[in-house]
Amino acid sequence: MTATEPSIFSRIIAREIPADIVAETDHLIAFRDIAPQAPVHILVVPKTEEYVTVAELAAADPELLAELVLFAQNIANEHADGSFRLVFNSGANAGQTVFHVHAHVLSGKLEEGRLG
Ligand code: 5GP
């Protein structure tokens, strides 16, 4: 049996690779996107990599999804004026490149790009 490689985000959670971590709870972590598409661009990631898409997370653990949304609001309050977009890319054809569910918290004018 081949062990599955941990996702890049699991490696950030494990502190195996560096990231600019801005907040963390028992279940969630938030760090700045390495290629920001807006003045504030922070990723909010459940620590479990059990779920790939937001719909999978919603079906399996709606409380964790609600926790994620409230955590995103707190981050927008702290790093912006409380206004934010919450983007979940679901599936490769929608631009998802990391298959460990995560939300993009974006505030300020978006750069031209795939999130815009
Ligand atoms: P997706 O395209 O899957 O919705 O979003 C993945 C995001 O993760 C992208 O915006 C990408 O810039 C970001 N990302 C990929 N690898 C790393 C990394 O090693 N560190 C950080 N901080 N962000 C990353």
TrEMBL record:
What Gene3D superfamilies has UniProt attached to this entry? HIT-like
**Source superkingdom:** Bacteria
Q: Where in this protein would one find the motif Histidine triad motif, according to its record?
A: 100-104
User: Which residue positions are annotated as catalytic?
Assistant: 102
Q: Where is the HIT domain?
A: 8-115
UniProt cross-references to Pfam families, sorted A to Z: HIT (PF01230)
Matching entries from InterPro entries are given as:
Histidine_triad_HIT (IPR001310), HIT-like (IPR011146), HIT-like_sf (IPR036265)
Cited CDD domains: PKCI_related
As one GO molecular function, the record gives:
catalytic activity
Name of the protein:
Histidine triad nucleotide-binding protein
